[in-house]
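Session log. Operator J.P. requested a structure for one protein chain; no other inputs attached. Running the standard single-chain path with token output.
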Amino acid sequence: MNKPLMLCTGALLVLLAGCKKDLSPLEQLPDATEQGLNTAGWLLEGKAWVPVRSTISTGMPNNGYWKKSKTGFSLAVSFHRFSIEEDWGIEFYLPDIRHAGTFVLNQDPAITGGRFAAGYGHYVHSRPAPNLDCYTSPNAPGELIITRFDTVQNIVSGTFTMAPQDDATGTPVQITQGRFDLKFDHR
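Structure written below.
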């Protein structure tokens, strides 16, 4: 092979290696799996959001528990990012779950006797401003689809979408393409 051809080939390889495809927001999310990998992600107003372990706390970014309650066996899952720069999270609560299925979140999450009586989705954002405290309700519905609910291996996986509204201002947020796969505590 002659020297100019080798130089051109080498230059082309360097240029191609330097070209980096920008990932779409959807491609930035973790895959939807059902193995208890402790992953989660969603699109918030079309931008990818993924929980990250805290830099100022020992808490895990993805958590869940399933426990006996007055209403049956309740499930709570939460996904957070907590640091000096930002503080936000998503939570879901189901007052009684015993198997996988589709759960429509369209009731007011009124507290009754210190416990939530209805299932809900919740998005909270306190850093950076503005503060938002958004719940699903009849006017701001959501849907949580549990694709795997394994009480032997303590794995819950699924997808979600919701448009919760801020309690104070009525400002809605669009959360789409949500997915999670985590191990939960059985209390």
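Operator note: The CA atoms of residues 144 and 160 lie 5 Å apart.
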